[in-house]
Amino acid sequence: MFNSFYKNIFMNKKSKNMKIKLISSVLFIISATIIFYSCDDTINQSELDSRPIPQSNISYSEHIQPVFDAKCSYSGCHNDADLAGGLSLTSHANTTANFLIVAPGYPDNSRLVLAVEGRTVNPMPPLGYWPLTDEQIRAIRTWVKEGAKNN
């Protein structure tokens, strides 16, 4: 009887330790997942589309690059690897490298502006992709008109 009592206590301690380790592991995985997803600084399409953009003093980093990141420079399009149409929109330097694409101060001479306004043979983004809002299109035009600054 004593022997069976001792085994029962020992097994319960072992079982208790296993439960603690299991619960700790599960809590760690849940915590790590929450931290991973909360650190993501990207925004979804509806957040981006509802974000207000001022009428002037357009900031490249605040207003233009987030639009390019979400709607233009992803896999298969205007990123550094794929260079659709020979164009990368992943940075200010890449976006403004070709004067024909972005002519600072001259939105009507900028292929980028004409493409997003649908005034070219190949309007951007193509049909079936996330369209730019009227406000985002206006912001790109205004940014180019204001000199396409890296601000």
Description of the molecule:
It is a single chain. The protein has 2 domains: 1-40; 45-145, no CATH class. It is built from 6 helices and no strands. By secondary structure, it is mostly helical. It has helices at 2-38, 45-50, 60-71, 92-95, 111-116, 134-145. The mean pLDDT is 85. The N and C termini lie far apart (80 Å). Helix 3 packs across helix 6. This is Cytochrome C Planctomycete-type domain-containing protein. Residues 76-127 form the Cytochrome C Planctomycete-type domain.
Q: What's the number of domains?
A: 2
The helix-and-strand class reads mainly alpha
Query: What is the distance, rounded to the nearest whole angstrom, between the alpha carbons of the first and last residues?
Result: 80 Å
Q: What proportion of the residues is helical, as a percent range?
A: 40-55%
Q: Order of SSEs, N→C?
A: HHHHHH
Number of strands: 0
The major β-sheet equals:
none
Number of helices: 6
Fraction of residues in β-strands: under 5%
Q: Sum up the overall morphology in one term.
A: elongated
Mean pLDDT across residues: 85
Rg over CA atoms: 27 Å
Which regions have little confidence, pLDDT < 50, spanning 5+ residues?
none
